[in-house]
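re: ur question from earlier - yeah i can do the single chain one, its not a big deal. heres the input i used so u can compare w yours
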Amino acid sequence: MESKIITEKISKDELRNILKENFGTMAKVDVDVKRHILTIGGEWHSEGEDLLIKDGSSREDAWGVNFHPLNIPEKRIEYVSLINIKPVLKHTTMEITDNALKQKISSVIASLLLSDNENL
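and the output i got, formated as tokens:
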């Protein structure tokens, strides 16, 4: 159960394998909203965030979500993670409520993992 960086769209088979290696129906995802890349997998969001930072991302641009690809599109992304607490950005909660930021995150996930018109 390791995090890995995704920079190009992965296949549905690869996504299924990632789910099997992780939580079965859910995977931890960390999205760099500036670089339009993400990490998937691992036990903690901090693992993916660390990978992104080592790859050149900024902590301010990395946001954590729980991704449930078997759910209907409206319920696939759970915008909650400890890494989302960013006092320097005046974001003091684990939950992302900013709609513009949520849209950026969902756009990256749709382009690299599973779009709203796709099913697993």
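The chain is about 30% helix and 20% strand. not sure if urs matches, ping me
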